């Protein structure tokens, strides 16, 4: 999965999709996930980084990560195979 190239992200968590004119806000962890995906990190790299940085367990991270990724897809901020976003 990739964040669409035209998506703008501010350091304060403001996310703007110029294709649709929609804007959203996200928390610091959401900012971090979006930045990592924009850098081209794959799912495993993102999850390993989050587990290490926030010292969380893998089960909790899996659920929260996939909820967030599904939201990115639904809001048309990301593109990729929806099978990557598990429920």
In short:
With 87 residues, the protein is α+β, with helices and mostly antiparallel strands. It contains 3 helices and 5 strands, in the order ββββαααβ.
What CATH calls the topology is Arc Repressor Mutant, subunit A
Tell me the domain tally: 1
Q: What strand line-up does the widest sheet have? A: 2-3-4
**Describe the biggest sheet?**
3 strands, antiparallel
Number of strands: 5
Please mark out the parts with pLDDT under 50 across 5 or more consecutive residues, or reply none: none
Structural class: alpha+beta
What is the level-2 CATH architecture name?
A: Orthogonal Bundle
- Order of SSEs: EEEEHHHE
Averaged pLDDT, please? 91
Q: Quote the distance from N terminus to C terminus.
A: 15 Å
Number of helices: 3
* Fraction of residues in H or I helices: 40-55%
Basic shape: globular
Strand content: 15-25%
In the CATH scheme, the class would be: Mainly Alpha
Rg over C-alpha atoms, rounded to the nearest angstrom: 12 Å
Essential attributes:
87 residues, Arc Repressor Mutant, subunit A, alpha+beta, 3-stranded antiparallel β-sheet, single chain, two-stranded antiparallel sheet
């Amino acid at each position: 999965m990739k964040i669409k190239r035209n998506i703008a992200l501010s350091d304060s968590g403001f996310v703007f999709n110029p294709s649709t004119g929609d804007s959203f806000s996200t928390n610091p962890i959401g900012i971090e996930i979006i930045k990592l995906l924009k850098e081209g990190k794959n799912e495993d790299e993102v999850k390993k980084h989050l587990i290490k940085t926030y010292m969380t367990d893998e089960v909790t991270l899996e659920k929260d990560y996939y909820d967030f990724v599904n939201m990115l897809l639904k809001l048309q901020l990301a593109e990729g195979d929806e099978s990557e976003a598990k429920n």
